[in-house]
Fold this sequence. Notes:
Helices cover 43% and strands 5% of the residues. The protein is mainly alpha-helical. It has one domain. The protein has a two-stranded antiparallel sheet with strand order 1-2. Residues 1-35 are annotated as: Disordered. InterPro entries: FAD-bd_PCMH_sub1. Keywords: Oxidoreductase.
Amino acid sequence: MTARAAARVSAGRALAGAGVPGAVGPGRGAPTTSAAAPDLRELLGDRLLRPADADYPAATRVWNGAVDRAPALVARCRDADEVAGGG
């Protein structure tokens, strides 16, 4: 698993541990974008990218052109500690 993929998985767990509504965690389903986005925006500020943001296309560009998928949100975490919920 790449560091980027690990960050995406761990971010949901960290948010659940921090009590963020809609976060993935024990006994919870996957969050909806509309439920998680405001809380993530509060935590990350302009480091949370949405499809309407200017930096979103560059952040979601993949090397494999056969893949035609894009995440609903992109979280640009500072470091592994932030992803783990300690930062």
